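Q: A small favour: would you put together sequence and structure tokens for a protein?
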Amino acid sequence: MSVPRTTIPVPDWIENPYPHLEHSLVSFPSKHVLLVTINREESMNCLPVEATIELGALWKWYDAEPELRCAVFTGAGKRAFCAGMDLKQRLNIIKTKEVALEYPQGGFAGMSNRVGKKPIIVACNGHAHGGGFEIVLNADVIFASPNATFCLPEVLRGVSALAGALPRAMLLFGNHRTTDLILTGRRLSVEEALSWGLVKEIVTQEQLLARALAYAEEIAEKSPDSVIISRLGAREVWETGVSRATMRGQELYAEAMLRSQNSAEGLAAYQEKRKPRWMPSYL
């Protein structure tokens, strides 16, 4: 069963309330860290169109909250992180010829084609199939349980993974590995995913969320401006290639980084041999 929906108190360091959610849960396990849990365990955490629209709005809210620095994304239960699109709903849409609500700019779950500003860590607590794998491919760091598997089964369903997975997999894994996955729909084991560099660590179900949250807290301890700028500077290569990405990083972020209060604070702390006192990021 899904985790019961409860009202989570919003900390006083949050400036604006988060958007209404029907299919996911939000909590704040520590200062600067957001935890988002897909709450559809009975459906293997597959997402109807409405859930994707909700998450798209949530990630925009997360990026805009000055005191939030890192997010962890997981699913309820122990079987699946996300089994992808709600195919029953999709079939009904096809049968009735109704036009589905458009996905947000970030794609499936607001994530499969998201650029965003801040990192999202995935605690993959089971299968990540279809859209679930598309989320993982565009996440920033992935921790996975031993029962996690990854696949793009669209060729088995008469559709295709067009929410961002195909080009991202090609850049991450290369031609032959990607072609193997997308033309057969086979499952990639968590051990293979680790050896391919997709998964950072394999962690027991009992420790998975704690490990991902501890990692998020480690990131949240760093300069929030530097985290945002470093992440965006690296991800620019998705769009432009190495040389252009390097120039774009300098054009877009160098001046903002050097003018930020956190840049001055980090350098002063180093000189004074003390721990930095980071300020909220308004980049």
